[in-house]
Structures are given as C-alpha cells and as structure tokens.
C-alpha cells in the first residue's frame, strides 16, 4: 500500500503565491504531502480565496480581534491538531511564533525567506541585498527555530543580481525561485529524504543527487 501523504498546513498572511505553488505541486499524485488546511492571521488574506477555490479547509484567526499572542497561538494549535496536521509550512506568514509554539512543533515547521540565509534575516531583504552590492541573491527554505529566520536549511535557490535592478525587479526574480524551492523542500521533508541531524539538514544521497536542494541560476 502507498504511504499516506503527509498532512500539511500552510500558514499565510497575504497574497499566497507560495501557497499556490505548494497546492500545484501537491496536485501531483506522486507528491508526498497533501495541503489539508490553510490558516491565516488575517481574515482578508488573498490566499484564502485560493484555498477556497481548491476546496481546502481554511481557518482565519484574525490577530486584530483575537486577544493575546498566547491565545491566538492556542487557537492555531487547536485548529492544526484537530485537522491532524503533521507538518506546517509558513508561506508569507508575517508573525513571529513564540518559542513555546515552535518547540511544540519542533522539526515540523518550515519557512520560506526571501534571501540566502544567514544573509539578510528580517524585512526588506531585496533593498538590503542591493545596498550590500551582492551579485547573488535568492531564497531559503528552513526548519523554524525560536530565533527569527534561523534554523536548519533544507533548500536554497539563487538568482543573479543585475546592474540596474530595483528592489521590485529583484523581488520578482526571487519569487520565481521561491515557487520552485518550496515544493522541492516540502517534497524532500515529507518523503523523509531530508532530515535534521545536529542542527543541519542531511539529504538522503542514495536516492538524490547531494546538491539536489540547491537551485542555481543558469550559466
Ligand atoms: C514571499 O516572498 C516570502 O518569501 C516572504 O513573503 C512573501 C510572501 O509572498 N516571507 C517573508 O518575508 C518571511 N520572513 P506570497 O504570500 O505570495 O507567498
């Protein structure tokens, strides 16, 4: 019998283009994860419409109305556990989770961040990459730890920084690679081919090329 798909929740705050990439990947019969729940901390998040269109259960727990951080996280936790969620993907979820929440889901939360971590944690990553004059920029999918934008790295995708780039142009190029690395990282983790060992991610190289988790720009 085929292994059951990993029940995965995607947490969003806005547009949901990474959610769209994950839903598209999970539509493939061979993909090892199913998107079983979409949660948002904003009732007006655009990505919720996308989940509705795909018939995916949603829950919006609006931070403006729902009390303290601990109370909101408790509601998230209940929704996740009630839905039998095994893995959480943060996809443009703009809220810092408490150490308590992160520890209670240890090694079961992934996040996508628009930079090549550990460079440029936090906000305005594209502006900061341009200011720093780096020639390569990109995106990272990592397991979440209590420190912001830190944790074992599953996959990274690199893009060139071109002369004359604006933060918007660079953001578009990075978003393109985000949509490729998040499905790749979820595939690796849900299938058990990427595992945390001693705060690094080890990829099972008997079934994959050892550099399978790096997408780099073409020559
Ligand atoms: C993405 O670029 C994602 O990397 C970023 O927010 C955007 C969400 O877009 N996340 C962070 O900055 C988290 N630190 P989306 O809603 O279209 O997926």
Overview of this structure, please?
With 219 residues, the protein is α/β, with parallel strands linked by helices. It has two domains: 1-105, Formyl transferase, N-terminal domain (Rossmann fold), CATH 3.40.50; 113-219, Rossmann fold (3-Layer(aba) Sandwich). It is built from six helices and ten strands. Strand 8 (194-197) and strand 9 (200-203) form a beta hairpin. Helix 1 packs parallel to helix 6 (167-190). The longest helix is centred in the last third of the chain and has 24 residues, at 167-190. The protein is globular. The structure holds glycinamide ribonucleotide. Glycinamide ribonucleotide is lined by residues 12, 14-18, 47, 91-92, 112-114, 149, 175, 178.
Secondary-structure blueprint:
Elements: E1 6-12, H1 17-26, E2 33-40, H2 47-53, E3 58-60, H3 69-82, E4 87-90, H4 99-104, E5 109-113, H5 125-132, E6 136-143, E7 153-160, H6 167-190, E8 194-197, E9 200-203, E10 214-215
Parallel strand pairs: 1-2, 1-4, 2-3, 4-5, 7-10
Antiparallel strand pairs: 5-6, 6-7, 8-9
Helix pairs in contact: 1-6
The structure holds glycinamide ribonucleotide.
List keywords for this structure.
binds glycinamide ribonucleotide; Rossmann fold; alpha/beta; 2 domains; globular; 32% helix; 219 residues; eight-stranded mixed sheet
